[in-house]
């Protein structure tokens, strides 16, 4: 009888474990997505993220995707809504979205994408490559020394480079601080032209046209107003080298860029690891784009009479 009872208990335990495993296999996850603003790069990152998770989880993942239309206050409202709804994970696309999500919760896992530098974005002074918070993600930072070298390659006779960016974006200020040093090492004079929001983009771009070349980092406000910038710099015949492809496609001539779709896809793979495999987001190292590509805007180059080397690819 004792043997029978022991066998019965073992069988029940096994069936219980099987049932739990089956339930875990059928679990549905809700993922909240905050995207700061609609533009080519961020749209591609969000699509890559969704595609990666959908390929792995199928209909077991439900997305609540919301766009803040460039309003940081809206980012906070969206993030707090996700916390109230009890989502399983938040994907924050761009720095302001990440900062809002971190302010909203210390418990729900957060993955960022299209963030240049997490230490700067989250005010972490002792940066280790991971946050030690409920946050990880992917960085869109291209090699800033490579972008400075691109300016030297394309415009060897230039003397002064204007640095055009939004001062309200911490990661933009970080990029400007870094590339400024590289440019000055290459012999360029630099001057900063910082706009605080969309209202003074045109006026600061106009001021920057006094320079031989303008550099714009991966800046969300600039990316949303490339037409405004183009309407200033192209008539002034002032070339723009951009930190990413979307800005270059709108108002630039060349960029050393990444695939934002691939970046978002990598973020989706990280999300699967957190949701399904129980990876610790606080010690998950920030991931970077696997490769960088020199690209040029054929129409703008033709308008400004710029010829690029053969190893540059046209932006499609």
**What is the helix fraction of residues, given as a range?**
40-55%
Secondary structure tally: strands:
13
Largest sheet: 7 strands, mixed
Poorly predicted runs are: 17-24
| Order of strands, widest sheet | 7-6-8-9-10-12-13
Order of helices and strands: HEHEHEHEHEHEHEHEHHEHEHEEHE
Radius of gyration: 23 Å
Give structural notes.
The strands form two sheets. The chain has a seven-stranded mixed β-sheet with strand order 7-6-8-9-10-12-13, with helices on both faces. A six-stranded parallel β-sheet has the order 2-1-3-4-5-11, with helices on both faces. About 3% of the residues have low confidence. By secondary structure, the protein is an alpha/beta fold. It has 13 helices and 13 strands. The longest helix has 24 residues. Helix 6 crosses helix 7 and helix 8 packs parallel to helix 10.
């Amino acid at each position: 009888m004792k043997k029978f009872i022991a066998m019965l208990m073992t069988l029940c335990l096994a069936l219980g474990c099987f049932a739990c495993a089956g339930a875990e296999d059928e679990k549905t996850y809700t993922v909240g997505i905050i995207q700061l603003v609609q533009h080519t790069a961020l749209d591609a990152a969000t699509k890559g993220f969704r595609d990666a998770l959908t390929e792995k989880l199928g209909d077991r993942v439900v997305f609540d995707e919301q766009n803040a239309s460039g309003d940081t206050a809206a980012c906070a409202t969206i993030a707090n809504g996700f916390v109230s709804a009890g989502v399983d994970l938040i994907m924050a696309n761009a720095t302001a979205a990440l900062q809002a999500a971190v302010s909203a919760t210390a418990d729900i896992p957060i993955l960022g994408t299209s963030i240049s530098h997490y230490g700067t974005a989250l005010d972490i002074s002792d940066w280790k490559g991971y946050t030690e918070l409920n946050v990880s993600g992917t960085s869109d930072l291209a090699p800033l020394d490579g972008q400075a070298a691109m300016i030297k390659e394309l415009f060897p006779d230039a003397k002064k480079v204007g640095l055009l960016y939004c001062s309200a974006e911490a990661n933009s200020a970080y990029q400007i601080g870094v590339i400024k040093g590289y440019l000055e090492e290459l012999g360029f004079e630099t001057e900063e032209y910082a706009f605080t929001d969309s209202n003074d983009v045109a006026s600061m771009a106009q001021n920057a046209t006094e320079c031989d070349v303008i550099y714009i980092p991966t800046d969300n406000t600039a990316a949303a107003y490339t037409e405004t910038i183009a309407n200033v710099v192209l008539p002034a015949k002032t070339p723009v080298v951009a930190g990413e492809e979307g800005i270059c496609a709108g108002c630039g001539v060349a960029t050393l860029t990444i695939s934002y779709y691939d970046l978002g896809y990598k973020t989706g793979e990280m999300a699967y690891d957190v949701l399904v495999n129980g990876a610790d987001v606080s010690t998950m190292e920030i991931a970077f784009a696997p490769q960088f590509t020199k690209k040029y805007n054929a129409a703008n180059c033709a308008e400004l009479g710029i010829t690029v080397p053969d190893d540059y690819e046209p932006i499609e």
